Amino acid sequence: MTLKLTAAQRRRQIIEKATELFSAHGFEKMTVRRLAETCHITEAALYRYFPSKEDIYSEVLESLREKINLGELKSRVGESDDIEEVLFAIARNIIKTFSGNKELYRLLLFASLEGHSLAGKVFTTIRGPYVTIFVGALKRLQEAGKIQPVNPLITARCFVGMVMDCALGLHLWKRMQKENFDPEIIIENNVPIYIRGLKFVQKS
Asked: How far is 137 from 63, CA to CA, in rounded Å?
């Protein structure tokens, strides 16, 4: 005999299954009917919890936001006056987060390809927090004369994008690559490029 789920349990089940389906099929191909069948309930029953597919998707993004643990990163970056420490901390957090939550980069990829109405929210939820943290650090270090004058937003977006692309490549295209690199090797190879570009060069 199958135990009947409470409302809270059913809602959690819907979000978990929706996360799997959205990350596997994208927003457009994931249907409410398919989700209801996966949860073994009717579409009418599902709509009692969420009025639309868009609402389900938004809730999925909120649940994923909770998996991106940025508390320690914010503290470490906010207290550091060393651009090298800041860059390595952000890069390692991104790689670790994406390695443990594959649905994050799948949703990012589908959002880029589909360009649906909630695509912007995907980037705001998943990539945005890292950009915000880095922009704050760049402005602070720039004002303190610790780094070269740069456009903080452009620099942050490009750096975060580079690291996230590496995270994508580690998983999505692994079978297509002749060599598979350890994440730490990728970080140690790429981050110093940014460090050299941002640090002031000491004149002799």
From this structure: 27
Q: How far apart are CA 139 and CA 141, in angstroms?
A: 6
Strand, helix or coil for residue 149: coil
The range of the structural domain enclosing residue 32 comes to 7-64
Question: pLDDT tens for residues 138-148?
Answer: 999 999 999 99
Q: Which of 131, 176, 168, 125 is nearest to 151 (CA)?
A: 131
Reported confidence tier of residue 186, pLDDT bands at 50, 70, 90: confident
Q: Is 1 among the domain residues?
A: no
Helix (H) or strand (E) holding 112: helix 102-114
Q: Which of 21, 49, 64 is the last residue of a domain?
A: 64
pLDDT category at 120 given cuts 50, 70, 90 is: confident
Helix and strand counts by DSSP (H, E) for the chain: 11, 0
* 182 assigned to some structural domain: yes
Quick check: pTM over 0.85?
no
CATH code assigned at 161:
1.10.357.10
